[in-house]
Amino acid sequence: MNDDQLADLIRRDQIDILVDLTLHMAENRMLLFARKPAPIQVTWLGYPGTTGLQTVDYRLTDPFLDPPGDADALYTETSIRLPSTFWCMDPEAIEMSEIPNVNLLPALHAPHVTFGCLNNFCKINQPLLELWSRVLTAVPQSRMILLAPPGSRRDWVRQTLGDRVHFVSRDIRQNYLKYYHQIDLGLDTLPYNGHTTTIDSLWMGVPVITLIGKTVVGRAGLSQLSNIGLTELAATTPDQFVELAAKTAADLPALSTLRQTLRERTRSSPLMDAERFARDIESAYRQMWLTWCK
C-alpha cells in the first residue's frame, strides 16, 4: 500500500497507538507517520534517536541512554523512559535456535589475548582505529578480530592496526556467533556503540569495554552494562578506555570466570526478562493513553 492507502486503513481500523520501528532507516514509513493516522504515535527500537516529526508524540528510551533532563530538548518527541532497558531479547526464542555454546577463554591456550569487534563496519572511523591501536600497544602481542568487507576497507584498517588485525566476513547468524569463540574481550565502536551486537557478545560470554558517549547512540554500552551489573567496564575518557581494556585483559582468571558466567548473567538480567519488559511497555502505552484522554 502507498502511504495514503495505509493511512486510510489505520483510520478505519481505529488504531489508538501506532508504533514506528524503523525511524529513518531503509524502507521506513516516515511519510505515513507525517499523515498522523492515529491519535498517538510512538517511535521505538529502530535506534534510540528522533524522527524529527512533530506528528510523532513519543519516543521510548531508558534512563541510561537519556538521563532525565539531559537532552530532552533535542527530540521532537516526548521521551518516555522504560525503567531499565531500551532493548530486550527473549531467551526462549534465542534458545530455540541452534546457538553455539560458550567456549573456554581462547587466551588460556593461545600465546596472546584477542580483542574483537563484530559491529557493522559503517561504525568504524579513523579516531576509533587509533584508539584501538592504543589498546593493542598497551597489551603486548595482542591481536584483534574485526568484521570488515574484503578490499580497500581492510587495507585502510591495516594502515593503523598493521598485521595485528584478522578479518572475518558477514555470515549466517550461527556462524557469526561462532566468531566469538575466537575473541577474549570486545571493544565497542565509537561514537555509535554496538547495540544488538553487544547483547550478542554478552550472550556468547564476551564482555565489552565501552566509552560513554555524548549522544544517545553512544550510551548503549553503558545501558547494557548497567543492566547486567558491569558498569566498571564503561570508561568515561579515551585514556580510561585503554586502561580498562589492558587491565581486564591482564587478569585471565577473572576474565575466564566472567566468560563462563556471562550468559546466565545476561539471561537473568532485564535485557532478557521478556515478561517484565512487556509490562514496562504496556505501562508506557497506558501512560500515553491516559494523557491523551485528559
Radius of gyration: 21 Å
CATH class of the largest domain: Alpha Beta
CATH superfamily placement of the largest domain: Glycogen Phosphorylase B
Q: Which architecture of the largest domain would the CATH scheme give at its second level? A: 3-Layer(aba) Sandwich
Order of helices and strands: HEHEEEHEHEHEHEHEHEHHH
Overall strand count: 10
Kindly, what is the distance between the CA atoms of the first and last residues, rounded to a whole number of angstroms?
33 Å
Strand portion:
5-15%
Mean pLDDT: 96
**SSE-based structural type:** alpha/beta
- The helix content, as a percent range, equals 25-40%
Given as residue ranges, the uncertain stretches (5+ residues, pLDDT < 50) are none
What order do the strands of the largest sheet run in, or round the barrel if closed?
A: 7-6-5-8-9-10
Q: Note the total helix count.
A: 11
Protein model, in words:
- With 294 residues, the protein is an alpha/beta fold.
- It folds into two domains: 3-86 and 273-293, Rossmann fold; 92-271, Rossmann fold, CATH 3.40.50.2000.
- It is 39% helix and 13% strand.
- It is built from eleven helices and ten strands.
- It has helices spanning 3-12, 30-34, 91-96, 126-138, 152-161, 173-178, 196-203, 220-227, 238-250, 252-267, 274-293, and strands at 17-20, 40-43, 58-61, 78-81, 114-117, 143-147, 165-168, 185-187, 208-211, 234-235.
- The strands form two sheets. Strands 7-6-5-8-9-10 form a six-stranded parallel β-sheet, sandwiched between helices. Strands 1-2-3-4 form a four-stranded parallel β-sheet, with helices on one face.
- The model has no long low-confidence stretch (mean pLDDT 96).
